[in-house]
Design goal:
Blueprint (H helix, E strand, L loop, with lengths): L2 H5 L13 E12 L2 E12 L3 E5 L6 H7 L10 E9 L2 E2 L7 H7 E4 L10 H11 L6 H11 L3 H4 L12 H13 L5 E5 L7 H14 L4 E5 L3 H7 L2 E6 L2 E7 H6 L4 H7 L5
Parallel strand pairs: 3-8, 3-9, 6-7, 7-8
Antiparallel strand pairs: 1-2, 1-4, 4-5, 9-10
Helix pairs in contact: 4-7, 5-7, 7-8
Length: about 270
């Protein structure tokens, strides 16, 4: 394990990075066996900003997202070429611990996936397995407050998380990720299974969370990307077509194909 990741191994320790960019993608290509799903993608992800990755189904956006915390390691035949740099380390370097990567770069999935345990144990399970030594009650309260869920469940902490509504379950999954004290939070279409009211709650939450965390979100919803993100990457067939500040992408894109996509002419 690298010296940097050894230093970060103590739970709750944050490496104080001064760079404006938290993650740097340098000619990243991703393959499933011999099929190239992502082709030579390069862009930087800025600290305390929301970066949206958009594009038609099958364009490689979720594959790219999962590469940012090495979730593709679990997919047979998947391999990454190029560099993904976080805290001055290549995330795919031989001396980097992927478990530590996933603690520091958390993830929330498309469908809420709470553990079949109590709300309380959903929050504490990961930290306890990682050697957390602090107050569990304080950790649970802090994480649920950050996910804007505390007031709704404070008297139900011993109830099963499966009894929560879909929107509440997704916020619980966000709280569960935050309990690991990550620096970056990845979200793979986190609102696609939710109703409009729950979606609005999650979007409001993301605005609050970016004060402390860097967020990368994959979304198929153009209106959502335009509302919540600071930067947007548009992908098509594995290629990065355009990356820019979101306002520019949606009002004055540099590439005609981007304009065609964001105005709904294809996709």
């Amino acid at each position: 394990m690298s010296e940097l990741f050894k230093q970060a191994g103590e739970f709750g320790g944050h490496f104080k990075m001064r760079k404006k960019s938290v993650l740097e993608l340098r000619d990243v290509s991703i393959y499933y066996h011999e099929v190239q799903a992502v082709k030579n993608v390069s862009f930087n992800i800025r600290r305390n900003r929301i970066t949206a990755i958009i594009g038609p189904s099958g364009c490689g956006k979720s594959t790219l997202l999962r590469s940012l915390n090495r979730m593709n390691d679990f997919v047979e035949g998947a391999r990454v070429e190029g560099e993904l740099v976080f805290a001055d380390e290549d995330l795919y370097g031989n001396d980097v611990d992927p478990v530590e990567v996933r603690r520091r770069i958390g993830m929330v999935f498309q469908k809420p996936n709470p553990f079949p345990k109590s709300i309380y144990k959903n929050i504490t399970w990961g930290p306890l397995n990682y050697g957390y030594k602090g107050s569990l009650d304080e950790l649970v309260e802090r994480s649920l407050k950050q996910a804007a869920l505390w007031d709704e469940v404070r008297d139900r902490l011993r109830d099963s998380a499966l009894n929560l509504s879909g929107g509440q379950q997704q916020r619980l999954c966000i709280a569960r990720a935050l309990a690991m004290e990550p620096e970056v939070l990845l979200m793979d279409e986190p609102c696609s299974a939710l109703d409009p009211i729950s979606t609005a709650h999650i979007e409001d939450l993301m605005f609050e969370l970016k004060q402390r965390y860097t967020i990368v979100i994959v979304t198929h919803n153009m209106q959502q990307a335009a509302r919540i993100s600071d930067y947007t990457a548009f992908m098509e067939m594995g290629d990065l077509i355009e990356f820019n500040v979101t306002k520019r992408i949606f009002t004055r894109p540099s590439v005609q194909r981007t304009e065609q996509y964001v105005t709904g002419r294809f996709g």
